[in-house]
Amino acid sequence: MTGPEKGLPSSSDKQEGRKQSSGVEALEKRLARYGNAAARQRNNLGYLAQLLDAGRHSTPDMLNPVWPDVFKYVLDDELKALKAKLENCGEWLQFRRYKETGSTHLYRASLCRIDLLCPLCAIQRGAKHLRNYKTKFEVIRMGYPRLIPVLLTLTIKNGFDLQERIDHLFRSVEKIKGKRRNAKSGGRCQSEFSKIAGAVGSYEISYSEKHGWHPHLHIVVFLTDWIDQKALSEEWLAITGDSKIVDVRLIDETNLTKSLNEIFKYALKFHSLTPAQAFECYLVLKNRKKLFSLGVMRGVQMPKSNTMEGLEDEAYDELQYWFRDGKYKPSSPAAKKLHGGDD
Ligand SMILES: [Zn+2]
Q: Is the same domain home to 138 and 259?
C-alpha cells in the first residue's frame, strides 16, 4: 500500500521512481500472499490424495482421529474430481501492468474456484465481492443518506459438531428473515432486526482445540434507527437458544475497503485448520450459499464501470509467474526484468 506523499517536495522524476518501486513492492507482497495461499492449497490437495490412496473407509483413524459422519458420504469419484481441479489451480498467474500508471491487474490464471479448499481462490472470490459490494454500498449511501451503516456480528456458541453448529447458524438466519418479514407486513412481532433496511452478510468459521468450531456472521447493515445492543443480544438468544454475543459498530467510512473486507475475506480461517478440518468444512458447507442479502442491498442498480474501458487503450506489460518450490517466480521476460532477477 502506498501512503500519502509527505515531506519536502521532490522532483516529478523522483516521485515517479518512488511510485514505480512501491508498485513493485506491492506486487511482490501480493505474490507472496498468493504463494502462501497456493502452498496451503497444496497441503489440502496432499490430504485428498492421501484419503484416496489409503482407502479411507478401512483406515479412517490414521487420517482423522475424530471421524465426522459427513465423511461417510464422500464418494471416491467426488474426491478424484476435486483432486484433479485442485491440481491445476494456481500453477501460473498472468498480470497486466499498465505502463503509465503502474497499476497491476491479475488478468488470467488457472483457478479451481473451490474456495472452501483453496485459499488462493478464496482470496480471488473475496476481492471480487469486495469490489462489487463497495460500489453497491456507495450507491445505497447516496440513495438513502438517512440510513445508518453498521457492521453487525452475530456469533454462535462454540461446539465440536460442525454440521450441527452450521445447521443451527443457518436456521437462525432464516428466523431473522422471518421476523423482518413479519414486522414489515404489520405483524405483532417486535424486533430489533426490523430496523434493518438492507444487509449483506457472510459466515466465518474458525477452530480452536479447546473450544471447537466457532461460526459467526459478519453483516453490513443499513439501519433505519440505531439498534439497542442489549435488546438485540436478548433477541439473538431467544432465536438461537444458546448464543447471545452480538456486536454492532458504525462502519468507518474513511476506510471503507478495510471495513467491508471484514465481510468478504476468507469464510474459513485456513491457518487455524488442519487439511482434515478444511475438508470437513468443505463437505458441510459446499451446498450452502456463502452470501446472503436483504432489503435495499438486493437489486441495486450498479453504475456502469468505466475502469476497464479506460485501461483498454493503455500500454501494458504482460507479467507471468510460475508456482515453483512453494512460491510464485517470474517466468516471462517482462516479469524477470521487473523484479531485477532471472530466477
Ligand atoms: Zn483454487
A: yes
